[in-house]
Design a protein that fits this description.
It is found in: Cytoplasm. The chain has 341 residues and is of the alpha/beta class. The protein contains nine helices and ten strands. A hairpin with a 4-residue loop joins strand 6 and strand 7.
């Protein structure tokens, strides 16, 4: 391949508008516009999200091209998030990508957002190692918690997943119970650094070996806080760091227990994490310790590739492009999409 392949990736599945330009498997630019509008509502408002995407998408794509120092005419293909996500948000990215690909007469590549989180590990950079196939990926985000066996770039098998809520939701809802602003997950991580992780004990859910459940844990935390506040109205304020550390410790334990079960069952010791919650410092630390304790090889993405971003869409598009997995212009966005689809 003498001529470089330039892929423009577009991500608009939730509340971040992102565009990235890739030269082969190297990132030239990765630009993201965050939407501040949702914080006062305590969660993402779909209607406001899609409107903000419409305002942001042209300047974000333009900036990605400028930073990459290439003209749109040099692009080889355009990759975009087909799903899963908020329908209104997905439609903005989908229709923009289709129009641009048609205008430039270049291939269109639809990307599964959950596959992209996993394939972010294949972005070439100086600091991260690239996992060999097959490997196990723990995909953890606000909407997903699953253990996926990855046999090649487009061969995924779900070994275990949550039967109710996702882990990101467990962090955010716990933060809400504590009166912390949205999104609360990063704040729990921040305050946990100063607390005692063994201060309070929360019970772990009893589900299958590789499956997850977080709704009972959220309820347990709620009842615990209500009980303690009856005795001491200032309980949260006086013990915030310890509460956050204990919640984070319990969630990390649950995730690690499931990964140990997975390794036992599959004998695969190459373990990656992906998704927004993989930015959590305790989960990263616990995973790294398994290298010493169990002889696993672990793969932890760079911070900028953990949350929703277009670089992961572009790298997935790159592998689709070289395998000629092109999309038809009649492709439609899908709010619900499994990692295996």
């Amino acid at each position: 391949m003498d001529n470089p392949i330039y892929i423009l990736g577009i991500e608009s599945s939730c509340d971040d508008t992102s565009a990235s330009v890739l030269k082969n498997n190297e990132i030239l630019s990765n630009v993201t516009a965050n939407q501040e509008v949702h914080s006062k509502y305590g969660g993402v408002v779909p209607e406001l999200a899609s409107r903000a995407h419409q305002q942001n998408i042209v300047p974000v794509v333009q900036q990605a091209l400028v930073q990459a120092n290439i003209k749109k005419e040099e692009l080889s293909a355009i990759a975009f998030t087909k799903g899963p996500g908020l329908m209104g948000s997905l439609l903005v990215g989908t229709s923009f990508a289709k129009s641009l690909a048609m205008g430039l007469e270049i291939p269109l590549l639809d990307v599964n957002h959950m596959q992209a989180h996993i394939l972010a590990h294949f972005i070439k950079n100086d600091t991260s190692k690239i996992p060999p196939f097959p490997f196990i990926c723990l995909t953890i985000s606000g909407g997903h918690t699953q253990i996926v066996k990855v046999s090649n770039y487009f061969d995924f098998e779900i070994l275990g997943e949550t039967i109710d809520d996702a882990v990101g939701e467990a962090f955010d809802k716990s933060a809400k119970i504590l009166g912390l602003p949205y999104p609360g997950g990063p704040l729990i991580d921040k305050y946990a650094q100063k607390g005692n992780p063994k201060a309070y004990k929360f019970s772990k859910p009893k589900v299958g070996d590789l499956d997850f459940s977080f709704s009972g844990l959220k309820t347990g935390i709620l009842y615990f806080i209500q009980r303690e506040q009856k005795n001491n109205p200032n309980f949260i304020k006086e013990n915030l760091f310890d509460i956050c550390a204990s919640i984070q410790h319990t969630i990390s334990e649950i995730l690690m227990d499931k990964l140990k079960n997975t390794v036992k069952q599959t004998q695969i010791k190459h373990i990656a994490i992906a998704g927004g919650v993989s930015a959590n410092s305790e989960i990263r630390k616990r995973l790294q310790l398994t290298e010493k304790h169990f002889g696993w090889t672990t793969y932890i993405p760079k911070f900028e590739y953990t949350t929703d971003n277009a670089a992961m869409i572009a790298i997935t598009g790159y592998y689709k492009y070289i395998n000629k997995h092109y999309s038809n212009v009649s492709v439609t966005a899908k709010a619900r999409l499994k990692v295996t689809e």
